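Team,

Forwarding the record for the chain on the shared tracking sheet. I've put the sequence and predicted structure together so nobody has to dig through attachments.
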Amino acid sequence: MILLDEYIRNFLKESNLNESLNLKDSSSIQDTITNLNNESQSLKDELASQDDAESFDHYISDRLDDVIGNFDSDFEYLDDGAFRKVYALPGQGWVLKLAHHTEGAKVNRQEIQMSGIDQNDDVYHGLGARNIFTKVYDYDRDNDLPWWIISQRVIPLHDIHDLELLKVIFPTFWNILSIVNSNENELDRNLKITESCMTQANNFVSFITLTLTKSMINSKRIKKPTEDYKGWDYLHKKQKPPYFSNKAYRGLTKEIFYNSMMKYYSFNIPSIESINFGKDFERLSRGLAYVGTTDLHEGNIGIVRSVKPSPDDIVILDFDIHS
């Protein structure tokens, strides 16, 4: 029975991989996984022969990076953050994320949990977050910590320069700018902001990401204090109960979004009802309902390549999970 369960899990994993990617992608992924696993096992054997197995975490990152980043490799370097490096093969629809250290491997594990790819993992972040997060195709299953993951390749917003495309994918934000721009009583300063955002793609992208970031900052809660907490007197008197929660965020609601935008930009929008909230806001709101992040810059929001672009193509590339 155990063998049958294992066979079914492997079959489903292969089916999902092949359905999501073309045969060329799937083949190159399998080759990459084999190379990474072989290098990982080679390091384990070397350290075991030296009676130094506990040093595995110290060496594994550089060893895997050497496999992918050497001069004979076809991989191209895409990005390098505090926790991971990102590589890709030209013309293929996936990326490889390699952890720099154990903290990076823990970030990988968070993304695996977010994706739901591990059927044995009982950590749940909500379907909305799972759907808006980039797909994870496979990950390091041979080690205690996942030192690499393979995930969907998407286009980050900072690489999109087509304003017409952005208008289709982010209709709520375009509607807001249109309302402000058509208001005869609007401040000149605000009209200049809307004009620049409605004529230059990079400024429109900045408007989107800045508004979302401000909204999620204002969405933060604090945990309910206890009487022995040193700030109890202040918090008990000054903070209202709705701000107390075991969750770190209150989600992305229309009210939080509207109030954050109005506070930052001081637009002359008469009411929240004036805004036509579209499918882009609906998708973002569902995705940020149970988990939150303020890491919503131009490189962390992207779109999936599509023959018919729509708000359904919006994705978040990396989730700094707070729930």
